[in-house]
Amino acid sequence: MNVFARERAQQLGEALRLADDLREAQADVDAVTLARLTRERRALTNRLSDDAVALATARGERVTASTLEAVRQTITAAFFDAIAAAAVASGRLVHELEPASDFPLDLDTVVGGGAPDAPEAPPVPVDEVKARRELRKAQSTLHDAEQAHARAGRDLAAADREVRDAANRVAQAEARIARLEAELSAARAAVSAVRNEVTTAEDRQARAADDVATTEKAVETARRALGRLTGDSA
Fold first, then answer.
1. CA distance 172 to 177
2. φ, ψ for residue 4 (rounded to 5)?
3. Helix, strand, coil tally for the chain in percent (to 5)
4. Chain segment 97-122, per-residue pLDDT in tens
């Protein structure tokens, strides 16, 4: 692993940069980015391990399955802890690292020749980190706005249906009112006509009663005159 760290510093630097991204994604709880970086980490870990084994083999060193696993564990540890990453980048490890170890590591015990300086892997520019965060924030804002717009559209459609239903009910009620008003007007006209007929009939009744009284007197007068002529005193 130490030979690889010294001779393949560029590849190791790539791994350390990805480690920074992974830790940042974990801190930001960015699930999508975290899943992507985890896949990249596994692929890069396997590739770096294979390259380290190939380099050791080319130098005539004996590499066993346990050695390969130790290399993978050490690279994985570097992905999850910045101090472990610095120890790996130093190229002076005295033993392999374990991802499940309790961090922070004591560099004096895992690195020969004293604690190393900070790893020289080029960091991600601050502006790029900020840009990624702003992009995620903008995407989240857009997603929220789209969801709100969709909800507003559904609310508007529901309100439109309610307005149409209410307008139909109003139209039906107004039509019924018109029919009832027409029926009421016709009923009032019929009542007025009947009242006129009653008045006319009452007038005829009064005149007929007067005629009856008048003709009754005439009949009595005629009877008395006839009795005088016939000698009938009845």
1. 9
2. -65, -45
3. 80, 0, 20
4. 766 555 566 565 566 655 555 544 44
Mean pLDDT, the chain, whole residue set: 77
State the amino acid at position 187 in one-letter form: A
Question: How many CB atoms are closer than 10 A to CB 83?
Answer: 19
Residue 12 CB: number of other CB atoms within 10 A?
26
Specify the DSSP class assigned to residue 97: -
**What is the sign, positive or negative, of the torsion defined by CA atoms of 146, 147, 152, 158?**
positive
Tokens at residue 74, please? 């050490």
DSSP 8-state code for residue 104: S
Read off the tokens for 50: 């294979």
| DSSP helix/strand/coil, 96 | coil
Strands (E), 56-106: none
What CA–CA distance (Å, rounded) separates 68 from 64?
A: 6
